[in-house]
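Assemble and predict.
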Amino acid sequence: MRNTIKYLAVLALGIIACEPEFDTPIDDEGVYSSGEADFSKFVSVGNSLTAGFADGGLYITGQENSFPNILSQQFALVGGGEFTQPLMADNTGGMLIPGADTLPNRFVLVFDADGAAVGPARLSGTPTTSAANNINTGSSFGNLGVPGAKSYHLGFEGYAALNPYFGRFASGANATVIGDAVGQSPTFFTLWIGNNDILSYATSGGVGVDHNVTGEMNPANYGADDITNNEAFDGVYRQLVGALTSGGAKGALLNLPDVTSLPFFTTVPANAIPLDAATAAFLNARFEAYNTQILPGLAQFGLITMTEVTERQINFVAGQNFVTITDEALTDISMAIQGPPFNLDPQTASVLSQLRQATPQDLIPLTSSGNIGVDLIGDGSAVTGVSVPLGDKDVLTVAEQEAISNAQTAYNTTIREVAEAIGLAFVDVKSVLAQAADGGIPFDGGLITSTFASGGGFSLDGLHPTPRAHALVTNLVIEAIEATYGATLPVVNPGDFGTVTVSNEVN
Amino acid sequence: MKKLLLLVLFALVTLITYAGGYRVSVQGQRAIAMGHTGVAVVNSAELVFFNPAGLVYLENKLNVSVGASGIFTDVIYQNSEFGLSAETDSSVGTPLNLYGSYKVNDWMSLGLGIYTPYGSEVTWPTDWAGSHLVNSIELAAIYVQPVVSFKLSEYFSIGGGPIFVTGSVKFDRNASRTATDIDGNRSNIAVDDSGVTNWGWSIGGMFSPTEKFRLGFSYRSEIILEAEDGEATFSNFPISTRPGIPANGATTFNAELPLPAELTIGLSYEFLDKWLFAFDYNRQYWSVYESLDITFGNGASSLNPRNYKDSSVYRFGLQYDATSKISLRAGYYRDESPVQSGFFAPETPRNDSDGFTGGFSVAITPRLAIDASFFYLRFEEIDESYDFYQEDGQNIPFEGTYKSSAFSPGLGLTYKL
């Protein structure tokens, strides 16, 4: 009996030898490699795109699905070290700011009792993250994405006081984002910056100033919604990359996707005004004098060109109609038409001053959808987008789009030049986003497109990527790293990453 | 005796998969040691399972066999494209079996068996890459079978009897690859049911032209376990009226799980006084397992095509009576998987395997013997996928490389009077 037990004990030991093992386990050396790169200390510098901001807020699961965090998990297979993130305290997306308004919660997609999609609404609940609590306990974070940051903010001492997202994890009151990155002696970095240098101009409907027109080079004189001067961006960008590579780090530079193909600008149609034949005829009668007498008359006086006369014609039809807008690029005629022979009252003159109807090329920001078709008085005589033109902030006109695209092209040229000049990996996010906006990007569950809420690529703010799109960006970065540094890394499956969050827990 | 029976039933509930599908071949220590052959081997009360027709050839009035095995299984998974890897929780199962036979007279014997031919226990890390297919599964089916055996002539006998089955199932999986609640917790469905009962039967025949050469066949019927109004728990679904999103909480479920029929034919041959050779061929009628369809009390449903095929096992065993008290045994079997390519679900990740077995018996007294056995199941590494998981009506394969192993030492007692 004793021998039997001994024998069984020997057999039991055999179990350990019987554990299955693959011929080529993926953690074997040689399956994946870091090539010439060294991922042991990885930092990621940028704005909301790097931070994992989505659905109009910053929250834990969004941060966990940020492209740098996904990337760090792939890096971990080839010697990548721990990657830390300044995680928010919860998943509400909001933040308490002492002495200021609380940042609102994230958007979730609401459905009605019949199961039909209603649209995005802010998640209910009180955020527990407070900007007053700095969570930097002596070592800075790997993810240094700061929502809202523009290129020139990253090196700005005092930015911690201006931006609560940075304030809550900055290493000190006068710390800079770039300083906190370089202070960690990174061996590898990503830099994705410049989006906000044009985006805030775009999302505000172009109310800011284009400093490629003013020639202003000093960001200290810039407003929040301005376009950064191309040369100013170039100078700042080269300084940032210079700082990040000063310790010999390798890295990847990501370029800037087209702003105007974001669902924030492509969801609300410019012909958002439905009219019946009677209403259209009534409105046309009201604008008849403007179309046939005032505009040609002003042209006769040489105040406006015949082209502008054509541009400014107001014409409503039965069906969908383009909104009326005030376009600051048009000649301001309000003073001229208050005098003879038109003798209009100041109120009418103000409506007509820079009036035209939108064209398919004009873009309406998502946040302006609520400003269209509002009956201001209640008797139908003053409806926004019809008898009352939309303001500058509610329309991104063609001229404004050109200002944006001009800056974007210049910034992207800088980014590519810098990458090529010092041999960094260059990640062409622009091309991939263009594909999402035009047809879609295939994955194992279908297509990822830029369609608002349902396309899978964009979160419910219409600007920021979903986790699935972060997975796409991750794969792009991996591809660029492999091409530049001879590394071999596993990609991620975008189908394993979610899109928008549905919930009826809204205020 | 009643207490013992309860204890045995209790212990049987914990089971492990380690044969084709969720068939578990551990129905007797002496048989295990010989490659789990036995349809034509007249050796012990294990015949209640292997071939009730043979019971009538046992020399003693009363025969009892009790055995238990400790089963250690491991399955590893990896996907090199995505850098994914996972390993099942190295679980230990201890299935038991209990057989007795009583010789009423020269031409009739009665028998009773309690055994567990089907079962499975696989636990992957929670929320692993394949968690939309399975996080964990526990299946157990306990067979209780009275048999009667008749000697029809000097050369031929038959036997058989009804089978009572009581089964239990636990199954836990995530709702999809991406669904979560607002805090990112994966939406999950768990089902749990026990005491699912049904009836079946088995029949066997044995032809013994000489004392040294026997032929046998046995057939065990298919039994469908039908879980009705079992407990299903939905958790971590978002709070939404979007179609297809169920409410969190408990509901009921109905599902069917087939325990396939099995046909065995085989022979045994004694030679050179002390040697015995046995061969069994099993045909397992797995094609009955077309789909695992679960319907829930809240209106949700889960359709999981399985499309198993009938499969075969080829078993070879050898016994050598070293002394009057000690017998040594060894065996080999080739176990073909019923799982077809493209249907390789991680809940039963089995491909073809080779089983190597061994063991011995030591007679402590003329009446009581200790039986020891072990087997090792060797699987080839395999690149496979399950292609029939759907999102929005589109099939989404779950691919990777799998490798499994199973090892089991067992111990039993044989008593004859």
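The first helix of chain A runs from residue 2 to 17.
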